[in-house]
Design brief:
By secondary structure, this protein is an alpha+beta fold. Helix content is 23%, strand content 25%. The chain has 15 helices and 31 strands. Strands 15, 16, 17, 20, 21, 22, 23 and 24 form an 8-stranded mixed beta sheet that branches. Helix 3 crosses helix 4, helix 9 packs parallel to helix 12 and helix 10 runs antiparallel to helix 11. The two termini are 54 Å apart. Pfam families: Beta-AFase-like_GH127_cat, Glyco_hydro127M. This is Transcriptional initiation protein Tat.
């Protein structure tokens, strides 16, 4: 990947000091960019919604009892997460209430610094193996930086210097503990920020210490936690800015490709990380944590500035337009923990066949304690995005990096001030107009990003077509007030085929991905009138496959109040589809797994409407295709059990994955944990009457690491009318490890079969595979 022009050490906004590698772009200070249009609306909703008022309802954000302003008290990541986004929300909107509260928190936290540089809760000094927990301070350093850039508060530089000096005195082992070990990229960014302002060389020594203590992203993926990945994968490239070693830059690109190749095989920009990315859980019904969405956006924003590679900018837009708005309700009062490409019901029930965490993750809640990290952290998404729309270039120009209606005021050229107004409905329109405002003629380079999907972008200056090539289209001229640049990014409706997810397809138009429009019914399940907790249920069919090769028609609507709502979207698509009756929800109302495509369907052809993914709280976004020569789908077995561990999967025994051993933890499993020594059962509804003569069980047994063992005994029962009867065995019930244990019996005809087990005294048990033939 070649570094694009204009990488250098000049520029009006804190150039990169040697020996740090020159970069093409510099971030403008908060307040330099005024969001307008739909982006200003989303930010206004945020001010009046969950982020802007979360301190009214979160007990982690009570000033008087918070350890970040009273070090004798306790606190951790919640206040740092929230303040990082909350402060920047104030800087980009100018909301006086937000700004006043931000300053109060800044004053309070800055006053806690001890003589040795430590700040915040004293108990965090020794909370990790008698050493400091640096992780929760990392988001606060970002908050301090934004506050300094906005306010010029002279306390921030010495405060950060003193704190980072304290870090630099710590022994190497401190840097490889807990969450911080996977997230040092955040702290490295702060050290570079300070170094570029002070030039103190020891800060670069600290960067090397942080890199050496970091989880090893250079050799591969050190941890599959989704937020660790979203933040941590960029760390090697950040260190490359100091090391100059291409292996560090390349590691970031390689790790991103690895994660997305394994778990990002569906649209929306994210990857399957419903806490951790796990083998066997990559279907588009899997979700991406909201923390992961905003952290991955931030990583892409940083990598754009560091490398100039427009692929990162494209990825940030895909997340922002498609996944981020779907993570909260239309009023931004409540949010959920997990956002999925395919999701047809958002209720408050645990999903044992889908998600890893032992709590419900999809209903819309303010989630102070249940969702905890995400509602405190999500707020940086739009404010950070707004601040990255425009970038200063190191050849004293301006770059339009991401597109949204806005006005930027910046120093360019030889030190002149210029404003540029961006008028557009992008991403709902393919035209963008820029109008220059300047006191006198001024020469400077103006760069416009060409998205990866827009090969045929066109530019006009004052009505005259100009021909510019490259990912960053450069216009260098003497600009006069009123000069107008028109950028057209022709948006065509295209499909992506996700070969690794059953050849499903997604539908794109420019940066927007489209989902099936499903009628949504909101039901209040808790909360208050002001802060309602909501479930969302489908009120129209959703199990459609798109007719292969059918055209897509664009339908313009009258623009509504909010383009990220079903009623407010200004542009929809229509196409032809057939229902696939065999595609159902499972026993816990989770959209069924995709089956091999294209699918066969004899259902009538219907015209369906597609809306932007970000406007669809219920959605199918990875579609099967249907074709005359398609594959017949089957009704999937419905599985119930006497009990299932919250972190396990009801559907694991029927997943089709063959274990390597009884202790195989690389595939989904079903267990009755933490029930021990009891009689338990698991039942298959085969969906039709079949003749059966054998059942094979591959028992889960984690001897040496856990408390699950093969059962003491087991038997097979079949449902005869309304009576469960034991089968007449012709072979014994084996309980051996590391193989299928098959019992045969006199054939029976039934739709329902049950395996009943007696667990060993003091032990639990489970299954990796259960076959019924």
């Amino acid at each position: 990947m070649a570094m694009p022009e204009p990488a250098g050490r000049s520029g009006h906004y804190v150039p990169q000091r040697a020996p740090l590698r020159p970069v093409p772009f510099q971030k403008l200070p908060p307040g330099a960019i005024e969001p307008r249009g739909w982006l200003a609306q989303q930010l206004a909703l945020q001010v009046d919604g969950l982020c802007g008022r979360y301190d009214e309802i979160s007990d982690f954000l009570v000033y008087e009892t918070n350890g970040w302003v009273d070090p004798a008290l306790g606190a951790w990541e919640e206040l740092p997460y929230w303040l990082r986004g909350f402060g920047d929300l104030g800087y980009v909107t100018g909301d006086t209430g937000v700004l006043t509260r931000t300053q109060r928190w800044m004053d309070g936290i800055l006053a806690t610094q001890a003589d040795d540089g430590w700040f915040g809760p004293e108990r965090l000094r020794t909370s990790l193996e008698n050493g400091p927990d640096f992780w929760p301070g990392m988001p606060l350093l970002a908050a301090f930086r934004s506050w300094y850039e906005y306010s010029g508060d002279e306390r921030v530089i010495p405060f950060m210097t003193k704190y980072l000096r304290f870090q630099n005195t710590q022994p190497p082992e401190v840097f490889n503990r807990s969450w911080g070990a996977f997230r040092w990229g955040d702290n490295i960014d702060s050290a570079y920020w300070l170094y570029n302002r002070t030039g103190e060389q020891w800060l670069l020594d600290l960067v090397t210490k942080m890199h050496n203590g970091s989880a090893d992203y250079v050799s591969g993926i050190p941890n599959w936690h989704n937020v660790n990945l979203a933040q941590g994968f960029r760390e090697p490239l950040q260190y490359w800015l100091l090391s100059g070693d291409a292996k560090h830059r390349d590691a970031t690109y390689r790790n991103y490709a690895t994660v997305m190749g394994l778990y990002g095989q569906f649209p929306g920009g994210g990857f399957a990380g419903d806490e951790n990315s796990r083998p066997g859980f990559g279907d588009p019904r899997q979700g991406f944590e909201t923390c992961g969405i905003v952290e991955l956006m931030h990583s892409c924003e940083l990598l754009t500035r560091f490398t100039g590679d427009v692929a990162w900018t494209d990825r940030c837009e895909e997340l922002a337009f498609n996944s981020l708005p779907a993570s909260y309700d239309p009023q931004q009062q409540v949010m959920h923990y997990i956002t999925c490409a395919n999701s047809v019901q958002l209720d408050d029930r645990r999903k044992h066949g889908q998600f890893q965490n032992p709590f419900a993750m999809q209903s819309y809640k303010y989630g102070v304690h249940q969702y905890r990290c995400c509602p405190h952290n999500y707020g940086m998404g739009w404010p950070y995005y707004a601040q990255e729309l425009w970038l200063a270039t190191t050849d004293n120009g301006l770059a339009a990096s991401m597109y949204a209606a806005s006005k930027v005021t910046a120093t360019i050229g030889a030190g002149e001030t210029v404003s540029v107004v961006q008028d557009t409905e992008y991403p709902f329109s393919d035209t963008i107009a820029f109008t220059v405002q300047t006191q006198r003629p001024v020469r400077f380079p103006f760069y416009l990003r060409r998205p990866g999907w827009a090969d045929d972008a066109t530019l006009k200056v004052n009505g005259q077509r100009v021909h510019v090539s490259g990912d960053w289209m450069k216009l260098e001229r003497t600009w006069h007030t009123g000069d107008r640049v028109e950028l057209t990014l022709p948006m065509r409706t295209t499909t992506r085929v996700w070969e690794d997810n059953q050849h499903s397809v997604s539908v794109d138009r420019g940066p927007l991905t489209y989902s099936l429009q499903i009628d949504e019914r909101y039901e209040r399940i808790g909360g208050t009138d002001e802060w309602p907790e909501l479930s969302v249920y489908p009120e129209s069919p959703w199990n459609y496959g798109l007719v292969a090769d059918a055209p897509f028609d664009v339908v313009q609507r009258e623009e509504g109040d909010n383009p990220f709502t079903t009623d407010g979207v200004p542009l929809t698509l229509t196409t032809l589809a057939r229902r696939i009756p065999q595609w159902e929800t499972d026993t816990e109302d989770v959209v069924g797994l995709l089956q091999p495509g294209p699918a066969q369907s004899d259902e009538p052809v219907e015209t369906v409407t597609l809306i932007p993914m970000g406007a669809a709280r219920l959605r199918v976004t990875s579609f099967p295709q249907v074709a005359a020569d398609g594959k017949a789908w089957s009704y999937r077995t419905r599985i119930t059990a006497s009990h299932v561990n919250d972190g396990d999967s009801l559907e694991a025994p029927d997943s089709g994955r063959t274990p390597e051993s009884s202790a195989d933890t690389s595939i989904p499993r079903f267990t009755w944990w933490d029930r021990r020594g009891t009689t338990e059962w698991i039942e298959y509804d085969l969906r039709s009457v079949r003749e059966l003569s054998a059942v094979s069980a591959y028992w889960f047994d984690d001897t040496g690491s856990g408390q699950c063992r093969v059962p003491q005994s087991w038997q097979v029962l079949w449902l005869d009318g309304e009576t469960w009867r034991p089968v007449q065995n012709t072979t014994p019930y084996d309980v051996a490890v590391d193989r299928l244990n098959t019992t045969t019996f006199t054939p029976v005809r039934t739709q329902h079969v049950r395996v009943e087990v007696v667990l060993r005294p003091t032990y639990s048990g489970g299954l990796l595979q259960l076959l019924v033939t």
